[in-house]
Amino acid sequence: MVQTYLNTTKFISWAIKGNFSDRPDLAQVYYPSTYNFLWYASRTIFLIENEIEKFIHLRKKGVHHEYYGSLESISDILLEAKGYLQDAFENKATEYLSKWQIPDGPDKGYFRDFLGLNDTNIFGKQDPKNEDALFSTAQAINILIATWTYQRPDTNSLVWKKNTPDNVKQLVQTSVNWLRENVLGKKF
């Protein structure tokens, strides 16, 4: 079981580091493929990080709970899995998202996948509709949040990790700005 868990995290890490978006057999299991794949996997690192933070918090408070005792016995496995995923997400996945955000003004940007990219108007000219831009942008934000934040065990609030680059925070903010403007609009 342990080996299966570690092999799975190694596979996910390999797929992200190896430009998985060029591999439809890996990336297109879900629609929209790239963003869902990254989001599902980023949730894993987020959950591992949160369990480790809870464990550390309870240990500092002197609280010992049966569940966290068992976590201690598998902490090496979780830390190894976290290492594979953290490297893949903090480097390759973040780089991928940084490259693929489409600016829309000085303080807004969005993401898109393939729906509506090849639409044409009645004259046969390209007229992309970006039909999945709202969803893809929301997923990109979720990926970055799952990669670069953790949930404080004492308040349950999300906190940026200390090593979060400013450009990641800016990427999230410009995407949120774009969503805020477009989510209820008639453009999409």
The separation of the N and C termini measures 45 Å
**Rg over alpha carbons:** 19 Å
What are the low-pLDDT stretches, counting only 5+ consecutive residues below 50? none
Shape: elongated
Q: Main beta sheet: strand number and arrangement?
A: 2 strands, antiparallel
Number of domains: 1
Q: List SSEs in N-to-C order.
A: HHHHHEEHEEH
Strand content: 5-15%
Q: Which class of secondary structure composition applies to the elements?
A: mainly alpha
The DSSP helix count reads 7
In total, the number of strands is 4
Share of helical residues: 55-70%
Strand arrangement within the widest β-sheet reads 1-2
**Mean model confidence by pLDDT:** 81
